[in-house]
Write a structure and sequence with these properties.
Blueprint (H helix, E strand, L loop, with lengths): L4 H10 L1 E4 L5 H16 L9 E4 L7 E4 L12 E4 L6 H8 L4 H7 L5 E9 L23 E6 L10 E3 L23 H15 L4 E2 L7 E5 L4 E3 L11 E8 L10 E3 L2 E3 L15
Parallel strand pairs: 5-13
Antiparallel strand pairs: 1-9, 2-3, 2-4, 4-5, 5-11, 6-9, 6-11, 7-8, 7-10, 12-13
Length: about 280
Amino acid sequence: MILTQEQTKFWHDNGYLLLNKFYSWREINKINKLVDNLWANRCSLDANHVIDIFVETEQEKRVFFRDAPLEARREPYKLNDLFLSSDEVRNMAAGPKLAPILRELLGGDLPMICNSLTFEFGSQQDYHFDTFYMPSPTPNKMIASWIALEKAHKKNGPLSYYPGSHKIPPYLFSNGTTLRIAQEMPAFFAYMDEQIAQRELQPQILLAKKGDVLIWHSQLYHGGSPILNTRKTRKSLVTHYFTKQDFPDENAPMITDNSCYMARAAQPVPYAFGQT
């Protein structure tokens, strides 16, 4: 057993686990340097490097990273799936330090990276469940990690979540699943408001320090707080994991004895590479 009994109980009770000072600043700085280098050399990047720019605005769009204007770096963006091309990202997201913990939280199943998102600003995303977008074939067999690449504070859009919300019965949309339907979101939010009030759940803001790691259950209700100072970054690496057991036929190279990653195509972009 990697985790203590107290950590295991906390996970079951709250739906998340915070690992303070899990990574050293030296390890974290390698990822920040990687992002700097990618921006500096983006014109030479291939079609595997995809970015969402100006997120949560009317100008939001997905482009190949090489086509992103430099000014897009000064606004919230999501750099998609660096795990597909970067050993450094794979080793941080599911290397020998973190992978055994992920595997234990998945009940012994092999964690498989299915996507990653690299941020320099807070996401400002509405409260949501990860199962809106990527429900696991086996219920409760998907988890996520959030790695602080710098310190979070109240003004740079820290992560917010409801401890214990993973115990709320999943809301099913008219498609019979947890996959989000935009027109039905008012009914979803009404359901969640009622459930949260009944259970007397309170939101918690994560003022993480550089190197901290938060792992959460796929049904933890979470989102990004508003950015109160738009000049302040909040760098982070978010990774979602399915299990190899749920995708036995997937091309999944091993990272460690306790982890692998989904070797798939990059996120789709609505134009051909090299078209711009």
